[in-house]
Amino acid sequence: MKSYEEAIGLIYWDMRTGAPKKGIAQRSEVVGELSGELFRMSVSDEMGAFLDYFLQEDNHGQLSRTDRKIVSECKKEFDRSKKIPPQRYQEYVVLTSQAEAAWEEAKDKADFASFQPYLEKIVAMNHEFIDLWGYEGHKYNTLLDMYEPGMTVAKLDQVFGALREQVVPLLSAIQASPHRPDTSFLKQQFEKEKQKKFSLFILEQMGYDFAAGRLDETVHPFATGLNPGDVRITTRYLPDDVNSALFGTIHEGGHALYEQNISLELVGTPLCTGTSMGIHESQSRFWENTIGRSRAFWSRYYSDLQQHYPGQFDRVEAEAFYRATNEVKPSLIRIEADELTYNLHIMVRYEIEKALFDGSVRVSDLPEVWNEKYRDYLGVVPSHNGEGVLQDVHWSGGAFGYFPSYALGNMYAAQIARTLDRELGGTDALVAEGRLLPIKEWLSDKIYQYGKSLTPSEIIMQVTGEELNPSYLVEYLRAKYSDIYKL
Amino acid sequence: MKSYEEAIGLIYWDMRTGAPKKGIAQRSEVVGELSGELFRMSVSDEMGAFLDYFLQEDNHGQLSRTDRKIVSECKKEFDRSKKIPPQRYQEYVVLTSQAEAAWEEAKDKADFASFQPYLEKIVAMNHEFIDLWGYEGHKYNTLLDMYEPGMTVAKLDQVFGALREQVVPLLSAIQASPHRPDTSFLKQQFEKEKQKKFSLFILEQMGYDFAAGRLDETVHPFATGLNPGDVRITTRYLPDDVNSALFGTIHEGGHALYEQNISLELVGTPLCTGTSMGIHESQSRFWENTIGRSRAFWSRYYSDLQQHYPGQFDRVEAEAFYRATNEVKPSLIRIEADELTYNLHIMVRYEIEKALFDGSVRVSDLPEVWNEKYRDYLGVVPSHNGEGVLQDVHWSGGAFGYFPSYALGNMYAAQIARTLDRELGGTDALVAEGRLLPIKEWLSDKIYQYGKSLTPSEIIMQVTGEELNPSYLVEYLRAKYSDIYKL
Description:
Chain A is mainly α. Helix content of chain A is 63%, strand content 3%. Chains A, B: It catalyses: Release of a C-terminal amino acid with broad specificity, except for -Pro.
């Protein structure tokens, strides 16, 4: 089954990075065939018999801790999958595979209508699946649980509510501040080759292993861990923005460090992946924001940036670049958003996904609903759907329930960063010396190596000594932006 | 089964074009798993029952001609495969997958010893398989038949004997000629980007469809038809040789035109591929040599070449370039060989393969045997194994019996070219006007569209009105080189 997953992962990577268009329809059939077979194996009588055998008390008692975890993961997946008719599942896989290609074109043309029929089918099939799986409280809970086990609408309403309570007044204070960073120098023309070279340099500094990965270019950046020896990332290069590709690369690089450093003992098992999307996002966002957007980072790497773009930053000080890079500005595009307003982008998607699954919003309403919520939450309105409702790849793949992980990731990241800072005797000092490898080692040791053999909750308890606590993120944001905006 | 083949094809393409090294071992497991499953399907009771059903006289009579051909292809494959234990087959696939990576490193380091154990296992397993399949006359016949149905050692000894009889005196006459082309201008420094751009330009002229393919860079150029909408080719760029990448590209482009133009009605069937390796090679070599190395071609495209390499060919006439490009010179590397001596490179490999399977040569002897034969046939001796016995990828994949296809391809190509010339009213005139598309259309119409639904013999009869006749190649070579060398 892991072999099938790896093959399918490679096909998806290829479809996104450069597969010829005319071959896509047939390739989608291939994905459908392999996914169907994978699914049949996962719900086979053979799998059922294996699970029965290993769950018998006598046999179960003899398993190692890791093997017991493997069995329970397989059992959970088995029970979940048994409820979907294999034929329907295969149709769903073909659908989402075609939808992703359709989305890419729709986004380019800002043409929601061409994507709408795909999205309607995807949402309808998710409703159908939720009814088969069952749900408690809110239909959307069943989807949330897939990405962050145990997460519910009730909890998210609470956590996001608390976060919003703190972020909104902080945002107001920032917007009222006269100390706005000058960002004009970020918007010059930057050659793609130079952007790529600098991105590769920073990846190397982070300890990304190029013998176990590669960097490519796609419309929407992503990381894919095919096995720990092959963890690929992508970014996109904007010709007039020095930061977009760089922070995209660091973000995906954070995901990749996680996957590259999973213990080789877990290869070929269902535990050879990140423990949850929230913890995964905590790592991408830790590297992107906590490290990459820190003053310490730019005190060390700003001269490298200057050298990579000769003449383009001669009159800009490191401190000015740091402040510009942390400009807070409500905007339209999630992946370009600053750390603070980012959470509001997530809340828009969270509200919409909730509404799609309690039936209060239809797919055909999405462009309008999207634009309204952007006005309400962020005070900005897309001029076309390409920079609005079509901006993210996620829904084309049916990944409803995924978005909240980003905000959870911010919270986990802030909490983990606090412990790391204490245990390594000051993260800033290390970063300022360009010593990022001890940080990668610490995270590998505490988090990455375990893959999915520990739960998110076990990880966060083991590393920080307490359950998820959103106050660390609030504290971090307040300290950082009070300083930058001299509040 | 076609879906599995397509997935495996993509994995191989990826392993050769840029997969991270550390992921290869695990990827080989994936290939082994999928190939094993493909093999199990091909020999399954279900397949047996399908074949029995469709071979029943009542049912068979109702099938279309194409469907009957599908059934007979599956039956042939089924009977062949049934004789190999699935476990042994899977081991073989894993072995050849690892061997290919080992070969690439061994070739780089000119280190035969590191590759020898892989090759010994591959040869031993082929012996084992031949014993299971059975053979008539010579063990090697069984392997030859896989690439060119019906081909035998007896026939090849005869055909190659006849060819050698004509080629050797022609070669002597050429070497004695005082009219040797000046080739000095071919050996300058050529930027990779310019080489790539010119290669892409010529591919476009040939009618290669970039929406159904792409060009990448590998150690050993190849073409892979994943489906007619995704036919990828690779080449390699030598910094000091203007022709290597170009003719590699045209060669693989010829293979690709074949695969891109197979009728879409055959997609998803076992007939959606070239009919034999010999016919496939006839197309790559037709485009590379008959078209690409013709005087008419350079009368049309030489000015484009000059423009792609500004200043580098200012003082060279088109005719001089044409003659240089057709220099006859015994050399070490097959894929760099001229049209005439190329056949001698094939004969070396043919003799060695024969000997490996009648037991007269051992794998450990290969470097020595190789070097001896190169001295005997071509009068040159490799200075290291990287430019000797390790130069070709084929054996690492277990493709014994494949090499003769190249020489067969030359013969088919010459015969087909004669008919094409007559039917289109002069190929040279079209080429001299840059009208390559009518040639592609004619070949698509006569050959490509049929895929494997006609046999090689049916194709050559249908197109040229007679069976394979090597005299066309001899005639073509004599006319071309008598002119160039003023014999």
